[in-house]
Amino acid sequence: MANAIEERLAALGLSLPEAAAPAANYVPFTVSGRIVHISGQLPMRDGKVAVTGKLGAGVSLEQGQEAARLCALNLLAQLRRACDGDLSRVKACLKLGGFVACDPSFTDQPKTINGASDLMVAVLGDAGRHARFAVGVASLPFDAAVEVDGTFEIA
């Protein structure tokens, strides 16, 4: 029987990808007690970065929001691994950190990362409401347009 998170994902027409392997010398997540820290996730789709470039310089706000949404799906995939496949253990999304590769004049980083925040609330309900930061950066790994990390509470 599917849990509530899987049912919400299905209702949105979404499924979680396989959790990506780390791209360097780090682990994809750490668990300390009831807290899971998930390393930054890129907007990966089918094993490739789906949205590359810089917002305000060829990448639109809408493309950036889609990139953030993909990052959130990848966060949830890592969270599923951290929960041994049982997303019903998720109690809350505590914090998201959003990095937006952008032109220096671009100032809509918060709107961009809303792509991830909105998905967390849609999938986790009130447990998806979280603290957050959204900052602009000069570049991200593999020319990704967005990267998002997260901290969650689990049972």
TrEMBL record:
<dbReference type="InterPro" id="IPR035959">
    <property type="entry name" value="RutC-like_sf"/>
</dbReference>
<protein>
    <submittedName>
        <fullName>RidA family protein</fullName>
    </submittedName>
</protein>
<dbReference type="Pfam" id="PF14588">
    <property type="entry name" value="YjgF_endoribonc"/>
</dbReference>
<feature type="domain" description="Endoribonuclease L-PSP/chorismate mutase-like">
    <location>
        <begin position="6"/>
        <end position="143"/>
    </location>
</feature>
<dbReference type="InterPro" id="IPR013813">
    <property type="entry name" value="Endoribo_LPSP/chorism_mut-like"/>
</dbReference>
